[in-house]
Amino acid sequence: MQTKPNVKTYEGQTFIIGYVGDKQGCGFYRFRSLSTYINNVENCKYRFLEPPFEINDERILSKTAAIVFKSDASDMTKYCIEHYIKLRKEKGYKYNLVMDFDDLPFKAGDNGASDVLDNKTKLAVDRIVVFAKQMDLIIASTAFLAKKLEENGMKNVKTIPNVVSRYLFGYPTHKLNRKPLVCYTGSISHFGDKGATLDFSEKWRTFIKMGVENDIFDVVVFGKSTQKIKFFGKKIGEKIGNIQWSHTFSYPSVLKAINADFMIAPLAPVDFNRAKSNIKMLEAAALGAVFMGDVFEGSPYNGCLKCQAVTESDTPKTIMEKFKFLSKPENYYSVQKAQADFISESNLYTESEKYIGYYFKTITSEVK
């Protein structure tokens, strides 16, 4: 027996539809973690939908404020964009078409990751640009990235920062281990094997070797680690632990299980990295692990404390001095608290009413 759909299901709702594809970047931090939280909040005006294919239901589309696409070159993205443009013209729907960028896709000429893309990826970028120019609104994770997108012909570019989800990360309660554990998340080479300037510079490599060889700290890499022997040598490389990538909803709990005391973020001073967000610093703060990262003009980590910052003039010796300073319990817990306060005071967490309000206002506002 067929039953009629409950029309009341749609009453009082405003929908945000998303086609974000992957489980990280735009897919997770910039859509899915927020949608999961909002969809479990009672009496919220907005509801997120993430359908596997296009929607035709007039009851939904007439109440849709925005349709968000990850910066993606797939045929599915192309088809859905064309579908929603056509329906909006025919039916008079009022939704915004939005594309979200989390990385710099264009060449910068300074040997960053976007300068060493293969031909297949370059063609994909060209296609993404065509899609993006059909959007009503472009959103970027940083002001620097927004500027670069505008320089490459994008219109109506707005910035929405990356944030961390407290419902996944919890609150920082980490206790400093007697022998500190240092964690690095990501690929050790990060396009370095394709000719890009390495994030893991020589001074960082030497610092890691010094720490492991002298039994000052242990190291674990969360992610791709196939080059750890090449980077650190067989003796040191075999002492570095490794945990493979997990699904991003389990990523915070896996990071907690690692129980790292420090999280490091080596970063080369190139525009690809200047366009990045400070998400690794926020993750460390959310976990209660003390952060250390590269700071330079335009670095996403310029907001960290001086004692956490690895500057261009630093050497392996001075990095170790900063590490040992931070390893003293009184300094460690002071910085840990400062990191947690930074997240709260800057509203850089998913559940922040200020952040939620800004997100919805940005993607649903009438675009002139």
Topology:
Elements: E1 14-19, H1 28-38, E2 46-49, H2 58-61, E3 64-70, H3 75-91, E4 96-101, H4 119-132, E5 137-140, H5 143-151, E6 157-159, H6 166-169, E7 181-185, H7 202-213, E8 218-222, H8 228-237, E9 241-243, H9 251-258, E10 262-265, H10 271-274, H11 279-287, E11 290-294, E12 309-310, H12 316-327, H13 329-345, H14 353-364
Parallel strand pairs: 1-2, 1-3, 3-4, 4-5, 5-6, 7-8, 7-10, 8-9, 10-11, 11-12
Task: Give structural notes.
The chain is α/β, with parallel strands linked by helices and 368 residues long. The chain contains 14 helices and twelve strands. The strands form two sheets. Strands 2-1-3-4-5-6 form a six-stranded parallel beta sheet, with helices on both faces. Strands 9-8-7-10-11-12 form a six-stranded parallel beta sheet. β8, α8 and β9 form a beta-alpha-beta unit. It is globular. It starts with 13 loop residues before the first strand and ends with a helix. 39% of the residues are buried. The mean pLDDT is 91.
Q: Which structural category fits the helices and strands?
A: alpha/beta
- The topology string of helices and strands comes to EHEHEHEHEHEHEHEHEHEHHEEHHH
Mean pLDDT: 91
Major sheet size, sense and barrel closure: 6 strands, parallel
Strand content: 5-15%
Low-confidence stretches: none
Strand order of the largest sheet: 2-1-3-4-5-6
Number of helices: 14
- The gross shape turns out to be globular
Number of strands: 12
